[in-house]
Amino acid sequence: MIAAREALGPNDALLLVDVQKDFCPGGALEIMEGDQVVPVLNRWIGAARECGIPIYASRDWHPRRHPSFRNQGGRWPAHCIQGTAGAEFHSDLALPDDVLAIAKGTRFDRDQLSAFDETGLAEQLARDGVQRLWVGGLALDVCVRATVLEALAAGFEVHVLVPGTRPVSEANGALALREMDAVGAILEEAA
């Protein structure tokens, strides 16, 4: 098993993708075992705090009539609506007070799956001197995948904390892992 403290370096950052109540058991867009990412990611949060590296956390922050919702012609049930309990980060996720939160999925004209999609995250990471990202969260085959692909395209080295992710579907999760691996992401299967 990879030891987080030994793996992290001075130009690293931890990026947690959409670990929100609506994506966990009982949520509006429940991902099977979505809450099981929390203990894994909490270990990485602890290591990041010990090493003094920044922690970023993205979240869907959808307006009530978001285009991704089925009742608006999209593919998903309504989820992570701004200001609702379902949009909150999972209550057991040990986010520090100084976490850098990224709101995405706020547009009325299209969805934003990646934490990099018109959020200014790449520019902030560059200002913070980040060169390498450690990424985990939900869902592996949707928003984690999109975030990892955009991070790689922006020139970051990306490590995917595979045990700290869960897919919407197992088949699509396997496809996403193969795709991310093929374009240069480092898959940390024992994270």
Shape annotation: globular
**The level-1 CATH class:** Alpha Beta
What's the order of the H and E elements? Answer: HEHEEHEHEHE
Measured between the Cα atoms of the first and last residue, the distance is: 6 Å
Helix content: 25-40%
Oligomer: single chain
Helix-strand category = alpha/beta
The CATH architecture term is 3-Layer(aba) Sandwich
Which strand order does the major sheet show? 3-2-1-4-5-6
Looking at CATH, which topology would you report?
Rossmann fold
Poorly predicted sequence stretches spanning 5 or more consecutive residues: none
Instruction: Indicate how many domains the architecture comprises.
Output: 1
The overall pLDDT average reads 96
What summary fits the major beta sheet?
A: 6 strands, parallel
User: Considering the protein shown, what is the CATH homologous superfamily?
Assistant: Isochorismatase-like
**What's the total helix number?**
5
Give your account of this protein's structure.
The longest helix is centred in the N-terminal third of the chain and has 15 residues, at 37-51. This protein has one domain (4-188): 3-Layer(aba) Sandwich (Rossmann fold), CATH 3.40.50. It has 191 residues and is α/β, with parallel strands linked by helices. The protein has helices at residues 4-7, 37-51, 121-127, 140-153, 170-182, and strands spanning 12-17, 55-60, 100-104, 132-138, 157-166, 186-188. Helix content is 28%, strand content 19%. It has a 6-stranded parallel β-sheet, sandwiched between helices.
